[in-house]
Please model this.
Amino acid sequence: MPFERQHGCVLRQRLGETPTFMIVVAGPRQIGKSTLVRQVLAGRPATFVAVDQPLPEPADPFTSQLADATIISGALPTAEWLVRQWTQARAKAKLLPDGERYVLAIDEIQKIPRWSEVVKGLWDADRAEALDMHVVLLGSSPWLMQKGLTESLAGRYEAIRMTHWSYPEMQEAFDFSLDEYLYFGGYPGCAGLIREERRWREYVRGALIHPNIEKDILQMTRVDKPALLKTLFELGCAYSGQIISYTKLQGQLQDAGNTVTLAHYLDLLSQAGMLTGLPKYAGQKHRQRASSPKLNALNTALISALTGYTFADARNDRSYWGRLVESAVGAHLFNTAFDDCQVQYWRESPDEVDFVLTNGRKLVAIEVKSGTNFAAPKGLSAFTEKFKEARSLIVGEGGIVLTEFLSRPALDWLE
Model:
């Protein structure tokens, strides 16, 4: 039986309810959004259409020979196409017996010009008619999705946010060991290639990294210095797990621009699910915003694909492997935190804490230990001395087993 992520249960539950809101399934590229929706829709009265598929030319109105239609390569649907798909789904929904609900799912919706305005009009018309049809919207461009949702569709949708695959998911679906997950990360599409490392690496670069940057970011939002954005991502993966000031980043980059530009590009990469800059925990918002970021790749596959380390080389280099473990923990925390809690770090020289979790009321300091010799981290003691309400956790040697930590979401550790 094909593996299905837990988000499928959420989607099934919402499809079983009376359509009150549209359902938005969003997340980074290549994490299985389309696959999951298709799995849930199997056996249901539904239409699934993908915006980024080539369009067939219209049928000859005199012969109606649709089977002879040719494909227009690279053509993208328009608002008129969207209206036509919606109208056809409406007609099918009205033919269903009472108690059955039709589902219209549209993939990569953000690629249609003015999509949110069109969807708003169509959805409101369905509500006025009390049409019992669910609408599921999928998208991988966070900027255009969020822009459309906040500007036109506020109050009309519920989101199902998907992110990179966790260790338990990769273990159950592809029999990944912990070490394989730490190195090869959580992309399901290339899980079958890990025995051919060069091929796996080429796939991650060509099918994941380049489309994420060149299609999702550069084509969907304004970037004045695209070469700088690409270099920042590569440098960020090389420095994943390290605190680095924007001034130092400028020194590492050619034509770096100002620190505001770098911070903006880092935010774009974070929204794309590629690389983030964790802020310093200081207890005061203005001091957090002014802090140097702790860079963290959001899927360790992105680090491994860009370095010269093979799987065997990485495991034999204890220093490098330790940074990979810390990056995996940081990615897991960030990917599972959502709006419920913030993920930060703390440093007051010479003391440092790898990660700090807070939800405004509770505070947890986390130290990652990947070595074989356990020593109580001094940073945790300094942090809990400064912030009396905080509690501390050690992940790895001498603390919570890494497999257990990677199996539970960030919010669990604030309970």
In short: Confidence is low (pLDDT under 50) at residues 59-74.
